[in-house]
Amino acid sequence: MTWLTWRQFRTPVGLVTGMVALVVVALVVARPALMDLYRSTGLASCTTDCTQEQVRDFLLRADDLAAKPLFWAGFAAIYLIPAIIGIFWGAPMVARELESGTFRLVWSQGITRSRWLAVKLLAGAGAAMLAAGLLSLAVTWFSVPFDRANDNRLIAEVFGARGIVPIAYAALAFVLGVLIGTVLRRTVPAMAVTLILIATVQVVMPTLVRPNLIPPKHYTGALVAQTGLDGGFEELMMSGDGSLHVIPRLAEPGAWVLSNRAVKADGSTFTGPYDPAFCGRDAGGPRRCEEWVLSQNLHQDAKFQPASRFWPLQWIETALILVVSALLAALTFWWVRRRLS
Question: Which of 24, 114, 286, 289 is the most interior residue, by most CB within 10 Å?
Answer without folding.
Answer: 289
